[in-house]
Amino acid sequence: MKMRIWPKTVEEWLRSILSVLTFFFVLFLFLAIASHYVAERNFSRHLFGETRYYDLATGYMGLCLNIAGGLLLIFSLTLAVAGYWRIASWGLFCLSVAALTVFMLGTWLARAREKPVIYLYPERDQAINVKLLYDGTLVHAYPEYPPDGWQVNAKPSGELVNVQTGRTHHCLFWEGSDLHAYRLDEGFVVAGKDTTAFLESTLAALGLSEREANEFIIYWLPRMEMNAFNAIYFPSEEYSRHARLEITPAPDTLIRVFMVFKPIAKPVDIRPPALKPVVRRGFTVVEWGGTELD
Fold first, then answer.
1. Which of 2, 46, 55, 286 has the least CB density, counted as fewest CB within 10 Å?
2. Domain spans, the chain
3. Does the pLDDT value for residue 8 go beyond 90?
4. Do the strands 229-233 and 253-264 form a parallel or antiparallel pair, or are they unpaired?
5. Mapped to the 3 state alphabet, what secondary structure does the chain carry?
6. What gap in Å lies between CA 293 and CA 30, rounded to an integer?
């Protein structure tokens, strides 16, 4: 008795092609979920060494997932139009389950970027446009964020007049959520009771004025000082790649302070980063915000 290896009928060929596409789609979906789990648990550095190699690999994996899903969708719809609905239904069912999984996963993994506020200090009264290019979903903004960005008349004191409404503000506020996972590979371990002193000295070194640091500490202190310890990191450059600002005219000095912290029960050994002191000069823009890791 001969074993049949290759499909014989058109219907068998179609089933085989659909099965292969479904297999690769499910495989890449599993890898996508696994990569998010690895990033969330901060395992990437230990498993993959240099972070950039891990990020490159997950980027290719995401591209492959999109390609496999697109091919599966096109092939399934083509089969349905051609009358092979019973075959096509399996591919469409897999896509529906995957879409639901990705939606639920995205909701679970999304992290809020809390209270980013933007201060503008021009050297003279000036009309300024501020655009936020954010790799996530903008949840709140005040004043309301227009499609072309905030348009304000700013004074050297920091007072802002919204061109659209005529209302006066002292800063621009926004909050959003995205799937980017920040990793505490380096940072500071600070006892909860020492949070105030640590933030006062660190924020001054990062370029915040006393008023800006005061507002920062007032917002975050209630969530930090009651913890036994906090692991704290300021990945401001990494943050800036995912929440870009386009400011016209361009500022002479741009200070963006973004804090990531995680409550911990006891001290852990992490490498403290070198802080880069900032000196303000000319037209200065300052932003601060943060997020709490689970």
1. 2
2. 10-109, 111-292
3. no
4. antiparallel
5. CCCCCCCCCHHHHHHHHHHHHHHHHHHHHHHHHHHHHHHHCCCHHHHHCCHHHHHHHHHHHHHHHHHHHHHHHHHHHHHHHHCCHHHHHHHHHHHHHHHHHHHHHHHHHCEEEEEEEEEEECCCCEEEEEEEEECCEEEEEECCCCCCCEEEEECCCCCEEECCCCCEECCEEEEEEECCCCCCCECEEEEHHHHHHHHHHHHHHCCCCHHHHHHHHHHHHHHHCCCCEEEEECCHHHHHHHEEEEEECCCCEEEEEEEEEEEECCCCCCECCCCCCCCCCCCEEEEEEEEECC
6. 24
* pTM, full prediction: 0.66
The tokens describing 131, both together, are 């655009």
182-225 pLDDT per residue, tens: 878 789 999 999 999 999 999 999 999 999 999 999 999 999 99
C-alpha 4/C-alpha 144 separation (Å) is 66
Strand order in the sheet with 229-233: 137-142, 172-178, 111-121, 284-292, 253-264, 229-233, 188-191
| Residues across the chain | 294
- Structural tokens at position 186: 């380096």
